[in-house]
Write a structure and sequence with these properties.
Length: about 280
């Protein structure tokens, strides 16, 4: 069976730096789903996105970022829950921008259920990243770790490995403390052009295991508009608590981002706290 999903389209715009920068982004992301002989599920997804900037207002001390166009195609092969003992996930991705940034990778993952609650995890693959501003990155990417399941919707997962020629960690947590209260958190580590930190429809295509995903992207981030063009290594930690009280949902989010700019040999750090209230008018 083959399914062609309706095209996912997202667009956003923002003003930052007290009106000093106007930014517009959009992305189009259609995908196809298929079953291969009843053995695995295949998802192939393409992305086309742009980030555009207007000129700063008169007198604003800001360095305007360059507009960016990105093209991406990715595929994910997943055995799913066909076996109670293991799950195999293989992903492949190609991404390029009009500023000569290219990223290609093929990564395989094995999830082996040691017990009903404990799963051993291993990833291995090859990655290549090229850009005029940094030395080319070529080589093996790998990680190993485990996942502990507390219940149907409660897990803690940690992995240790190597990526971008450096030690890296991956982690996620989802805890359902009560039927009304849950805690979610994740740590990610990516290397992209600074403008790509804005096109979340393109960059948020990894799931908690670091594999190609097809879920709805999150809200765009807002960078420092004084930064120049360049590559950024973005380490992002997010922890959130969600409380449901009848028709009201309260969400508290705490986040920390550490961005390293190889071309500037400098770091930029953010700490974010957010509170969101959603209320249904009826059931």
């Amino acid at each position: 069976d083959v399914y062609l999903s309706p095209t996912d389209i997202s667009a956003s715009g923002l003003t930052s730096g007290q009106g000093s920068l106007q930014q517009k982004t959009y992305a189009v992301s259609p995908f196809i789903e298929a079953q291969l002989f009843g053995l695995a599920d295949l998802t192939v997804r393409g992305n086309y996105g742009q980030v555009q900037f207007d000129k700063p207002v008169v007198g604003a001390a800001a360095t305007l970022l360059t507009d960016l166009t990105v093209k991406q195609v990715g595929a994910r092969l997943d055995t799913g829950t066909r076996s109670s003992l293991y799950q195999i996930i293989t992903t492949a991705e190609y991404l390029e921008t009009d500023q000569d940034f290219e990223q290609q990778n093929v990564i395989g993952g094995l999830f082996f259920n040691l017990t009903k609650r404990l799963t051993a995890i291993g990833h291995i693959g090859y990655e290549r990243i090229t850009d005029p501003t940094i030395p080319a990155i070529r080589g093996t990417v790998w990680s190993a770790g485990g996942r502990f399941t507390f219940g149907t919707d409660s897990i803690v997962q940690l992995e240790y490995g190597e990526r971008f020629g450096d030690t890296t960690y991956l982690g996620s947590v989802a805890l359902v403390l009560t039927p009304r209260l849950r805690i979610d958190g994740a740590y990610t580590d990516t290397l992209v052009p600074v403008q790509l930190t804005l096109v979340r429809s393109v960059t948020d295509l990894l799931d908690q295991d670091g594999n190609f995903n097809v879920t709805t992207p999150s809200t765009p981030s807002i960078p420092d508009p004084t930064l120049v063009d360049g590559i950024v290594r973005d380490k992002d930690l997010r922890v959130g608590a969600t409380l449901v009280n009848d028709l009201q949902t309260y969400t508290l989010t705490i986040g920390h981002t550490d961005r390293f700019y190889p071309t500037l040999v400098d770091n930029e750090k953010f700490f974010v706290v957010g509170l969101q209230l959603e209320e249904q008018l009826s059931r």
